[in-house]
Amino acid sequence: xxxxxxxxxxxxxxxxxxxxxxxxxxxxxxxxxxxxxxxxxxxxxxxxxxxxxxxxxxxxxxxxxxxxxxxxxxxxxxxxxxxxxxxxxxxxxxxxxxxxxxxxxxxxxxxxxxxxxxxxxxxxxxxxxxxxxxxxxxxxxxxxxxxxxxxxxxxxxxxxxxxxxxxxxxxxxxxxxxxxxxxxxxxxxxxxxxxxxxxxxxxxxxxxxxxxxxxxxxxxxxxxxxxxxxxxxxxxxxxxxxxxxxxxxxxxxxxxxxxxxxxxxxxxxxxxxxxxxxxxxxxxxxxxxxxxxxxxxxxxxxxxxxxxxxxxxxxxxxxxxxxxxxxxxxxxxxxxxxxxxxxxxxxxxxxxxxxxxxxxxxxxxxxxxxxxxxxxxxxxxxx
Length: 383
Ligand SMILES: Cc1ncc(COP(=O)(O)O)c(C=O)c1O
What we know:
Layout: E1 12-13, H1 24-36, H2 47-67, E2 74-77, H3 80-90, E3 98-102, H4 107-120, E4 123-127, H5 137-145, E5 150-154, H6 166-175, E6 179-183, H7 187-190, E7 200-204, E8 215-219, H8 221-224, E9 237-240, E10 245-247, H9 261-276, H10 279-297, E11 301-302, E12 311-315, H11 320-329, E13 332-333, E14 335-337, H12 342-348, E15 353-357, H13 364-380
Parallel strand pairs: 1-13, 3-4, 3-5, 5-6, 6-7
Antiparallel strand pairs: 2-8, 7-8, 9-10, 11-12, 12-15, 14-15
Helix pairs in contact: 1-9, 2-9, 3-4, 5-6, 10-13
C-alpha cells in the first residue's frame, strides 16, 4: 500500500482527518485526463468537450454510487464547507424555525446553521454530550420531539471518533417533518455510506484520497426540487432575458460557472481506490484501538467514548502545540488545536487537544513510532 504514497517514505503521517494523502493512481488519472481529454464541459459541440463531459458525468455517477445516491441528486461543490453553506442559505429557515446541531459539530456545519438561525431569528439548539463525551441520544430525541425543522449533524466526529446513529436521528426528525443534513466529511473516508434515509449529505474530495477543490453534496430529489439557486452564473440558467432569468432543474441549478473538471476525474479514481480497499477500514479501527490502549497506559486523557473510528484525541500534561512541534522534529505529523470544534473544547474545559488520525496507508509501526515519540516528549518536558 505505501508504494502508492511516495510522500510517506520520509513522513509518519497521522493527520488524515485533516486531509488524506493521495495515491499515485489519483495523480495519474488527473494527469492522463489533462493531457488527453481536457476541455470545458456541457457546452462544447466538438468531440473533445464531449469526452470531457462524459468523464465529468462519469465521476458524478461514481460519487452517487459511493454513497447510495443517484446522479440526479449529486451536486458538485468545492467542499463540505461550501455544501453546508449552500444548504444553510437555501433550506427554508424562518423566525419560526427550530434549527438543531450538536457540540460535536465541526465549525463548517455549526457556523453556517448558527448564522442562518441568527439571520432569520430562528431558534438554535445545540445537542449536549453525555458524561462520557458521547452524543446524548436521549437528549437528542427530547429536543427533536420539541420540534425540528433542520438537524445538521456530523456522522463521524473529527475529534472523538464517535459514529453517530444518523439513521435513528433521521426517523425522529422526519416524524417532525424536518430535514436531516449530515456532515459526512469524516464518515465517507471510514464507513460504508447509505444516504437513503438522509435528506442531505456532504463530503470533501481531499478527505477521501482525492483532490482539494471538489466536494460532493447529495440532496434527496424531492428536497432538491424545492431549493432556489444559491449562486448565479453560466451553466445553471435555462434562459436569460434583460428582464429576468429562468434556471435549470436538478443539480445543474447549483453548479454555477465552470466546475472542478479535472478534480472530478481525480475524485472518481479516489473513490474507486477506497471502494477497492474496504477491508482495510477494519484495520484502521484496530490501529485506533491499539493507539488508544497505549495512550491510556501513558496516562493521556482521552476525549470521548472508547469506541472510535478514524481518530483519537487526547491531552497530556504538555501543551498540545508543544507536543505537535516535538513530534514534527521526528517527522511525525499530528494535529493540535481545537480541530474546528471550539464549542466542544469549551464544554470540555480545555483549550486544545492532540489528535492522531489514520488512513488506509497507516501501519502498527506508525503507531509505535508516535507513542515512543510521545513518551520522549513527556520526558523531555519533565512532567
Ligand atoms: C467532520 C468535518 N466536517 C467538515 C469538515 C470541513 O471539510 P472541508 O474543509 O473540506 O470543507 C471537516 C474538515 O476537517 C471535518 O473534519
